[in-house]
Amino acid sequence: MKTSNKINFSRRAFLQTSTLASGGMLIGFNLFTACKEDVKPPIDLSLLNYNDFNAFIKISDEGKVTIFSPNPEIGQGVKTSMPMLIAEELDVAWDDVHVVQGALDTKNYSRQVAGGSQSLRHGWEPLRQTGATARQMLVNAAATRWGILPSECKTKNGVITNSNGDILGYGDVAIEAAQLEVPEEVALKDPKDFTIIGQGKSNVDIDEIITGKPLFGLDYKVEGMQYASILRPPAFGQKLVSFDDTATRGVNGVNDVIKFGDKVAVLANNTWAAMKGKKALKAEWNQDSQAESTALHDEKLMAILNGDTFDTRREDGDVKKAFAEADTVLERTYETPFVPHNCMEPMNFFAHVSTNKIELVGPIQTPAGTASRIAKMLGRDESEVSLEMTRMGGGFGRRLYGDFALEAAEVSHLAKKPVKVVFSREDDMTDGIYRPAIKYRIAASIKDGKLTGYHLKEAAINSNMYGLIPNFFPAGAIENYKVDTANYKSNITTGAWRAPYTNVLASCEQSFFDELAETMQVDRIQLHKDLLEKVKGTTDEQIQYSPERLQGVIDLVVDKSNWGNTKEGVYQGFAVYYCHNTHVAEIADIEMENGYPVVKKVTCAVDCGIVVNPLGANNQVVGGVIDGIGHSMYGELTFENGMPQSNNFNSYQLIRMHQTPQVDVHFVKNNLAPTGLGEPTLPPVGGAIANAIYAATGQRLLKMPYMKHYEPQKIIG
Amino acid sequence: MPTYNLKINGKLQTIEADSDTPLLWVLRDHVELVGTKFGCGIAQCGACTVHIDGAAQRSCSLPVSNLQGMEITTIEGLSEDGSHPVQKAWKEIDVPQCGYCQAGQIMTASAFLNDNPNPSRTEIRSAMQGNICRCASYNSIEKAVEVAAKELS
Fold first, then answer.
1. Which residue of B has its CA nearest to A428?
2. Interface confidence: ipTM more than 0.95
3. Superfamily assignment of B85-152 in CATH?
4. B3-76 and B85-152: same fold?
5. pLDDT digits 0-9 by tens, A490-532
6. Which site in A77, A154, A273, B68 is 20 to 30 Å from A658, CA atoms measured?
């Protein structure tokens, strides 16, 4: 994760302009060149934080502006907010802007990725510079035509004026402007002059969404396309022995059955026939590696926590000594389960592999990496591959992994036909790349009423917290501090799930802090503020968060939530966290109904710097909070004999409207560069809820999902 | 293969399909109306909601053979141009995040408001609980249904 927002770039290296054959001006930039020092190939998740982007502006002769949004849209709103940055500095009316999803273009764009809540943070300077540069070139062209200095020109809403009363539209000078030299220096607006940034703008695809226009991968089709339903091993660790497709071939509409690896694809004229054909397949499997279960995972992870084989990820002072000298030691073990992503749009992808080209279309968070893997798999040159991104019916990390696209390409290659692979919901939930089960053991030492030591051990399936997470709060605030990690290698596929690792870590740590404050007999809020006080002025460059900004969100959430002054029957829980470069504090209000806790309201204070699009930002904050509540209360995927024990929404509970609290959102107002919002409001909310449930019932819930482990209270009255 | 005459968005269409084919796939694969979404296939998530004779129904679980003579309305037929009060409210509130479930949400909400044009907040929360939104835009959906109700009543 980057520690600085500063991005150095040479404008000459990344700005290109050209006149369009159809008239008008095209300006492009490439941030890949701009932040070369930071950018590395996306080998692992931590590197997904180093997103970079580029975009194109197209100005027509009539002055209409098209902005190509290069990054994948998964519902996080970048297709609206990123073009807003360009439009602001270009000084055009937002109503004149038409946003188009850019296709994968490794020559002109680079690292087109959705992940890590990094889009706006990394795009903030370069996208505005791009808009400002285009504006300056348009002004220079007008000034030349008028025979005056560019500084004598003004712009507003796509119109250039001067003190003589002359007027030119951007479209009038677009071609001349495109032929000018790219200016070396351009001024950016003072934030107080923003007219687009900070104004709520609707989702740019809103009209298409509410009228049901084709937008998503599942909506894409071409003439002659085959729908493919794929039979995959029913349990992790299994291999295909044999299959019988007699019944399948008798299904109306089924055209072909193709085995590839340990999978069998049924190709048909329509989705229903493909799904029916798959159900009619008879297959034999053998268990090639261990058939794992949730009981096995629990046993292995607990054995790790009870052992002493760890990688130490951060160590300050002498934790051993602090614990040896402590008056009191608080130690708790927190347990979190596997969860699937459950994007509403099941995984799907279109591929047409032919002799001279490979066409790919569909929902993918990592288009460049996926196109490259497919070229490699088929032994083809990357230049033969084209990839068009559709709008995505959710991502949450699942669409970082192009497994479904590789399947589509392989089946199309074998069938020699255009193919769309479509997962059923059961395929989607049981052939997942899950958030892994993780257990934490957290211990704190208290001496003379002071917190002297903190030791966190993480035992996770397959991999551990990445990058600089061990340097998030409370690192730096406690003299003797240690984070240890270890994992158990499973044959169940795991990967990134919205706010990877912090999504459960924050909830567990913030539950622990609530109990710690109680043990120390200090105020919960004050404990955090005092700890943060110690981090101020730190010279430790590893520390990721700002203690001032965390204190700021704490003050704001306390102020807005009636903390400590609620009406009778309302119980509150507090949590604060920093991740994905954003500082968040949350207070959950619960009430007891029929012996069960019901989350009624969550007050959320966020410091993400400048709020670019308040409408979209609010949606992300609220969505992240409710998603976090749903998964900490209800989300769990268990395994028996290598098989997931839930496969659809009748056996897996996602939060629904009647279980949803009102989320009250407050942003800290400042002029700092914006940071992302797709993930950071999710991690702490589980802690806020667990703490509120404790306040109401005296039960400390150490195990997710909370409602499975909660013991109902006797109904009084 | 049998043929069926279906009235979809006011237009009679002849469909050639197996009798067990769910309306969802007839709409999506046979008549190019892809606004109705596939979410679960077992009537649990509401993404595929359409109106059958004005009532909200899950098209993933309605076989084509049961639908002759009925009025089928999809998101494409709710209005010609997005001008239905529920669609307008969705735009005003800027409900969608990924947007995938929203056609189903709009179809559920519009049928509900047709029956109950002046609902309480509790009634809204109860009526909409059959539709999952994975992005959790529930607060905005609730607000948008209230806005639409105001215009309708």
1. B40
2. yes
3. [2Fe-2S]-binding domain (1.10.150.120)
4. no
5. 999 999 999 999 999 999 999 999 999 999 999 999 999 999 9
6. A77
